[in-house]
Amino acid sequence: MRVLLLAALAALGLGTALAQDRARDAEAARAIEQTAEEETVLAEGEGRSETFGYCTACHNTALIRRSHFSRQQWDGLMDWMTERHGMNPLEGELRDTIVGYLARHYGPQQAPARGRNPFLN
Fold it and tell me: How much of the chain, in percent, has pLDDT values that exceed 70?
C-alpha cells in the first residue's frame, strides 16, 4: 500500500517533495539529538538535578519545559510513562522530589493580572 502511495505521489511530482521533507525532518532530529543539554535549562530549585537525571534518560527537557501540569497530573504521568513506555517505576522519596519539582516549576500557568479578561473564567 505504501509503495502504491509513493508511486502515485511520484507520478504527481510530489514524491521528491516528500523525500525532501523526510530528509529535512531527519536532519532536524539528528541536530536535536546531538545538542547536549545541561541541567541549567531547567528552572533552578530543589529537585532539578534529580529531575534532569531521571527524565532525560528518555527524552529532552523541551517536553518538560513546555508542559504545565498540576501536581496530580505530573504524578499520574509518572504511572502512564511506566505503563505505556516502560519507564522504570518512580517511587518513594525520589518520586516525591521529582513530582514536587515539576509541579512547582512547571505547573499550570496563570495569566498576568494586567492581561486577564474579567469576562472570562
Answer: 65
Domains along the sequence of the chain with CATH: 2-34 (no CATH), 39-105 (1.10.760.10)
Closest CA to 99 of 59, 46, 57: 46
* Reported pTM: 0.64
Contact 100, 71 (CB under 8 A): yes
Are the C-beta atoms of 85 and 58 separated by less than 8 Å?
A: yes
Q: Which residues of 77-116 are buried (b: 16+ CB within 10 A; e: fewer)?
A: bbeebeeeeebeebeeeebebbbbbbbebbeeeeeeeeee
Model confidence at 48, pLDDT cuts 50, 70, 90, reads very high
